[in-house]
Amino acid sequence: MEHINAANRVAIERMLSADPILIDVVTAVDVIPELGNSKMILHAGPPITWDRMCGPMRGAVTGIAVFEGWAANLSEAEGMAERGEFDFHPNHHFSAVGPMTGMTTASQPVMVVRNRAFGNDAYCAINEGLGKVMRFGGNDESVLARLVWLRDVLGPLMAKALRSMQGDDTQGVALKNLIARGLSMGDEMHQRNVACSGLLLRELSPALAKVSTDATQLSKVLAFIGSNDQFFLNVGMAMGKAIMDPVRNIEHSTVVTAMCRNGTDFGIRVSGTGDQWFVAPVEMPEGLYFPGFTAADANPDMGDSTIVETIGLGGFAMGAAPAVAGFVGAGNASGAAVYTRTMRGITVDENPEWTIPSMDYTGVPTGIDVRRVIDTNLTPTINTGIAHREPGIGQVGAGIVRAPMACFEQALRAIATLEGVA
Amino acid sequence: MEHINAANRVAIERMLSADPILIDVVTAVDVIPELGNSKMILHAGPPITWDRMCGPMRGAVTGIAVFEGWAANLSEAEGMAERGEFDFHPNHHFSAVGPMTGMTTASQPVMVVRNRAFGNDAYCAINEGLGKVMRFGGNDESVLARLVWLRDVLGPLMAKALRSMQGDDTQGVALKNLIARGLSMGDEMHQRNVACSGLLLRELSPALAKVSTDATQLSKVLAFIGSNDQFFLNVGMAMGKAIMDPVRNIEHSTVVTAMCRNGTDFGIRVSGTGDQWFVAPVEMPEGLYFPGFTAADANPDMGDSTIVETIGLGGFAMGAAPAVAGFVGAGNASGAAVYTRTMRGITVDENPEWTIPSMDYTGVPTGIDVRRVIDTNLTPTINTGIAHREPGIGQVGAGIVRAPMACFEQALRAIATLEGVA
Asked: Coil, strand, or helix at residue A137?
């Protein structure tokens, strides 16, 4: 197994040497030209067809079709979907990721995170805030109006600001140190991003002020970012994708390069098996529900946000975020470190630059090894938001979910076949 | 002792029912009219005369005299000080506080925190950032130029922004919940204010954008606040003063209402003994020094910032801020909670609204009881910055310092006399 260990060292070194920078906001079709070809919709998770999509995913699809002007209304969009007029693909196939339903289409603004160490870019749409939002399947006028405002106002202003930060030492917003600070401020970057959202605003706001020509718009943009504790989530996700893409296709490596869910299936990719998906039915999160909702309202687990756990944050960094433990119903806050220690059992290494002060600066568990998942019978712990199963209602809670063991079993079999041992 | 316990309950209830709001920035003389009478200088700590002032305090005095236009240069200012031309008083005598040297004079901008539950206001100057600054005795042209910019640009813009937030529900920036969030984000609000500084900027920046008429100035103001991790310290101090002033003069109460140091003496005030100072020589902090400096460079402990510990934060809230433990040389980060638990031994109660997630939401120790300090032989733990003993050099480290036991012994004797038991 020495050659596998050596391949995994290569994988870890690529992860640890990544240098992700938030550099721009662009129109999606400008960086993913395929989006201009047809009525193409990128979604969260592994590949899926309309007939197998869950409620919120369907809600988001019909909403985004109206947003793109392909349909006059939601019912027309639904008919088009049923007739197969939309071309569905996973975000992951196009250097992109998206939270929950994860819609990415031609005219949406996407944030660009560049991994400066490897030269690759990754994309994610801008976080819409809480309440009725498209990532939870929301699709009414208020949802679409917000997407229009993100496209026409916030996105372009953020782009101008980030570009104005080019050329000097900063070159946009460097994310590696920002994450390190966030970990010392109670964020795990999946269900808690309040610190990183604030740190990002601190860096962005002087540039936003410099490039803005409309004080009212500027004020609204600052208020939108400043009142959204999860604003950073989408930045962190693009960062995760930018870090993991160069880790793909390392021969013999058993390190997981992506985990994602579409609300129906959970999929993982492993470095040594390239772009193959190992897919199993997605599980139900266990967690706490907002007032008025119960587990009966919950949609199964959904979104590309598990890229955050793939790089050692989220559920893997729970020890940094005791306040999250209560929020996701994961027991006493003082026990949060147990999750981090347990996840260390399925990773190759720790990240020496992303450390947890309260654990005496232990690094977050880094590089999920398929072999260790099987050996320990422990699957990755994921901190997740819970969507209502009906489209258009939104988030109903937050909880913990495990990646299905079947994905890792399939992956191990595929590796065994490649290695000639099966 | 039942009547003392009852009096201390009153003190605690006043502390816990405080409702501090950052409402304004004003010119000091407009709210402290005595500052206009003569060459009056308010300083940190209990009363002190020029001949007993430490190096940084003297440096700040000469600098602020030049800033106020009373002297053409530092040596002229020194001569004036020696001839007794300045009228020195503690900040604490005028509803004010100041960090380190704590200079407050007529034309400086001061932030106003109103305790809405009791109607009293408290004042503190604006934090200057790190490096060569007046609070560490800095007094060269760069230091004075920054004070001019704070007076002419940042102060007035911040005032306009805060006033624009009046009238709606927010009425400035409410601080009680902001502190609660900061405690869940690794701040203890004395040596670590990065979270609260960010949370404050989030609330202020939309208003700053709305009222600004100069994009370059706005950008500079946002960058100044956003790059100063200790920006919030001075807000927290004014908040502490606003919380504690209504706790003064409760007959029979043994709760400490102020702790402060002028670099020569440490002074405390106790509720039942009113405005009397109990003073003892200040101690040297034990801590860690910035590269190139050692304990031989250190000035004794200084500043009104111990108002933060007086309300249960700073060293008392160390459990919330494991990253601070290393910064101040207080042992392993994982042991930070020990400081909080120990300080609970000298307080009357815990604060149910200011809790520490990693300690399963234990409230910060609140209301230092002079009797308990004597009984346990434990004096308050203070997280402090360390100034160079020469004026004009600045901060050289950070550490832990204890309030001198002699202050508490004097206070207990005075209480005993009042109670007729001595």
From this structure: coil
Backbone phi and psi for residue A353, each to the nearest 5 degrees, phi listed first: -100, -15
- In angstroms, the CA B212 to CA B218 distance is 6
Backbone dihedral region for residue B346 (phi beyond 0: left; psi -120 to 50: alpha; all else: beta):
alpha
Q: From CA A74, how far away is CA A58, in angstroms rounded?
A: 10
**3-class secondary structure, B96:** strand
Facing residue for B206 by CB, picked from A184, A194, A222: A222
* A window 283-302, beta carbon within 8 A of B: none
**Which pLDDT belongs to residue A131?**
82
Tell me if chain A has a CB within 8 Å of the CB of B332. Answer: yes
Domains, chain B, in order of start with CATH, read 18-238 (3.90.1710.10), 246-419 (3.90.1700.10)
Q: Are B253 and B213 in contact (CB under 8 A)?
A: no
Beta-carbon contacts below 8 Å between A and B: 106
Strands (E), A145-275: 173-174, 256-262, 265-270
Write the ipTM. 0.93
The answer on pLDDT for B134 being more than 60 is yes
| Residues in B touching A184 (Cβ below 8 Å) | 186, 323
Question: Residues B241-284: pLDDT tens digits?
Answer: 999 999 999 999 999 999 999 999 999 999 999 999 999 999 99
Contact A386, A287 (CB under 8 A): yes
- In our burial notation (b when 16+ CB lie closer than 10 A, e otherwise), range B204-240 reads bbbbbbbbbeebebbbbbbbbbbebbbbbbbbbbbbb
B40-43 and B87-90 as β-strands: parallel, antiparallel, unpaired? parallel
Q: What is the pLDDT, as a whole number, of residue B168?
A: 55
Contact between B411 and B76 under an 8 Å Cβ cutoff? The reply is no
CB contact under 8 A, A198 and B203: no
Number of Cα atoms under 13 Å in the Cβ half of residue B332: 8
Nearest CA among A299, A305, A331 for reference residue A318: A331
Query: Strand A347-356 vs strand A362-368: parallel, antiparallel, or unpaired?
Result: antiparallel
Distance of CA A12 to the CA centre of its chain: 20
Q: Which of A169, A244, A274 is nearest to A17 (CA)?
A: A244
Q: Does any CB of chain B come closer than 8 Å to the CB of residue A207?
A: yes
For A357, the closest of B218, B220, B323 (CB atoms) is: B323
Element (H, E) at A31: helix A28-31
- Is residue A331 less than 8 Å (CB to CB) from chain B? no
Structure tokens at B45: 């700590």
Is the pLDDT reported for residue B293 higher than 60?
Answer: yes
Closest chain B residue to A359, measured at CA: B334
Q: What is the DSSP letter of A129?
A: -
Residue B137, Ramachandran bin (φ over 0: left; ψ between -120 and 50: alpha; else beta):
left
Parallel, antiparallel or unpaired: strands A96-97 and A120-125: parallel
Is A195 in Cβ contact with B206 (below 8 Å)?
A: no
Alpha-helical runs (H) found in B90-246:
141-149, 155-164, 176-183, 194-211, 215-226, 231-244
Kindly report which listed range (A71-75, A123-127, A392-396, B237-241) carries the lowest average pLDDT score. Answer: A392-396
Whether A222 contacts chain B with CB within 8 A: yes
Contact B205 A210 (CB under 8 A): no
In angstroms, the CA B49 to CA A397 distance is 61
DSSP for B140-167, please give it.
SHHHHHHHHHIIIIIHHHHHHHHHHTSS
